[in-house]
Structures
1.
Amino acid sequence: MTLPAPFASLRLPVIAAPMFIVSTPELVIAQVRSGVVGSFPALNARPASQLDDWLYEIEAGTVGCKAPFAVNLIVHKSNNRLEEDLSVLEKHKVPLVITSLGAIPEVNAAVHAWGGAVFHDVISDRFARKAVEKGADGLIAVAAGAGGHAGPQSPFALMQEIRAWFDGPLALSGAIACGRSILAAEAMGADFAYIGTPFIATNEANADSNYKQAIVDGEAADIVYSSLFTGVHGNYLRASITAAGLDPDRLPEGDKNQMDFGSGGNTAAKAWKDIWGSGQGIGAIKSIEPVEARIAVFEEQYRAARNELWARTGME
C-alpha cells in the first residue's frame, strides 16, 4: 500500500500521540521539526479562540518541514466545542485530523472537503469496522498498555483482526517506547507507531517537572488501569493516584454516563492534571531530554534492531 503523500518523507514511521495538557505548540513543532508527525488535542487550546492562534504558531514553526502535523478532535457528545473547533481546522486546512470517542460521517466529510485525512482511534475490530464504514481514511489501533485512554486487547490480536480486512493506513499504540518496538509495530502490519508517553519526559512537553520525573523513574508495574477518572478506561501512574488521596488498588468503576473530557476529569482529582496518564512502556525512558534527542535515540535503536533482525534471519 502506498501511504498518502504527507507521510512519504518521515524520518521514522512515527505519529506522536496527542496528549491532554501535555501537547502544545512547542511540543508539536519540535516533533515535526524532528521528522515525525506531531499532534495535539484541540481541547488543549483554552479558551477555544486560542486554537486559531496555535495553528498559526505551528504553521510558522514548521515551514519547510517534511513531516505534517495533526489535530485531535473528541467527537463524543460531551464536547460542546466540536463544531467550533472543526471550523477553525477547516480555515487552516489541517492535513490530518485524529478523531476519538465516536465516528461521525459529517466530520469526516468536512475534513475530506478541504483535502485532509481522518485517522480514527479504536480499541477493537468492531469499532474499527464502524469507523471505516463512516468514512475514516486510517485507523489507530489502541492496544493494551497504551497511555491515557486504552483498550484491553493484545496488540497481536488487535492488529491481526484489523489487517485481515483493512489495507489502509494503520497505526499501532501501546507501550511503544523504543526503536525496537517501532520496528515490531511494522512487523505486525502497522504503517506507524503511535507514541505518547516518551514525549512527556522531554524539555518541550507542557508537563509538571514531577510528572516528567515520574515517567523516568517508573516502570510497567507502576501503571493502573481504571475508568474512574473520565468514565472510560485508561492507564495512569500509581503515584499520582496515591498523591490524590486515593487507593489505586481499590478504585470504583467510572460512570459511562458521566464521561467528561472537556474539563479533564469527573472526580475532585482531575484526569491529566492531577492523575497522570502513562503507558506501560515507561521502563525504557531513562532521562528528560529534548524531543530531537529522543527521536535520534529512537532512530539509532530502530536501525540497530533492523540490522540485528536481518543478521538473525538472513533476510535482506
Note: The first strand starts at residue 14 and ends at 16.
2.
Amino acid sequence: MRTTAHPGPPGRVRLTAAGPGAQITPRAPRRISLRLASGLLVILTPVVVALAVALGPVTIAPGDVVSIVLHHLFGAAPTAAAVDDHIVWEFRVPRVLLSLLAGAALAVAGAVLQTVIRNPLADPYVLGIASGASLGAVSVLVLGATGAGFLASLGVSGAAFAGAVVTLAIVLALGRRHGRLDPPRLILSGVAVTYLFQAGTSFLQLTASPDKLSTVLFWLLGSVAGAKWSELAVPAVAVVLCLGWLLGQGRRLNALMMGDDVASALGIGLARFRTVLLVICALLTALVVAVAGGVGFVGLIAPHFVRLLSGPNHLRSLPLTSLVGGLFLVVADLAGRTVAAPLELPLSVITAVVGVPVFLFALLHRRPGVPA
C-alpha cells in the first residue's frame, strides 16, 4: 500500500491511501483514549482539589469542606466547627488554588518554550528567570530592609518579580543576533546569566544567619505554605489572562513547530511572535517564582507527558497540559505536608521524587511514532 501526505491545517498531516483495495488504518483508538483521558482529568480536578483541602495534619470531613466553601461563597448556613472553618478557608483553599495556578502556569510555559526554542529539554527556567527572581528574593530575606535597599520596600514577592523582569531584559538583549532573537544564543545567554545569579545567591546564603538560612533554602525549593487570599488575586488574574492568550495561539504554535518557512508562508511575523511568546512565558514564570519560590520539574514533565498522549498539536495539548501541571502540583503539595508530618517538605523535593519515575515510565512505554 502506498500512502500520500497532504498538508492540512497547521500542525496536522492527513494520510490518504493509494492503489486498488488500499485502506486507511483508523486512528479511532487514539482519539478515544485522548477523549477518555480529557474527561477523566476534568472529573478528577474538583475531586483532587477537594481531597487536598480536606487532608492534612488535621483531617476534615469532605462534607464539612463543602459546607464551609458554600458558606463563604453563597452564604449557606454553616455546619462545621469554627476551627475547621478557619483552617479550610484561611489556609488550605488559598494554598490549593495557588498550587493549581502555579502548576498550570509552569506546565504551559514549559510547553510553549519547548516549541519556541525547539529544545525538548527547555523548561520555564531555561532563560534564567528563576535565578534572577531567587537573587532578588534572597537579597531581601538575608540582607533585610537596610542591606537590600529599594528591593526591601517591594517585599519578598515583589523583589522576586523585579529580579525576574531584569533577568528577562538582560537575556533578551543578549539573545539577539542582527536584530532578531536567535534560539541557540538565547539559551546560552540564559545559562550564563543563571550561573552568574546563582553564584550571587550562593554567596548570600553563605553570609546568612542559621535562622534565615532555613527560610532561604525552603523558599528556593518552592512552597505555597504562605498563600493568602489578599495575595492571590493579582497572580490569579495574570495567570488566567496569560494562559487564555496562549491557548488561543494553538494554530500559530503548530505552524511555528513545523518550521520558519511554513510559519512565514502562513503570514506569521516570526520575530515579533517569538518575542511575545518569550515575554508571556517569562511573566508566568516570574509570577510563580514570586509567590511560590523555585518549583522545579513541573514545566518539563507535564508537557512531555501530555504530548505522549495527545501528540504535538497545541490545540489539544495545551489545555491538557495546564490541567496536568496544576493537578500534579496540587498532589505534590498535599504529599509534602502529609508524608513526613509534622515536617513539611519543599515542593521541588516531591516533584522530583514523584515526577522522575512517572516520567521515565511513560517515556519507556510510549507508543511508536508519538513524539517525546
Note: The chain has one domain: 68-364.
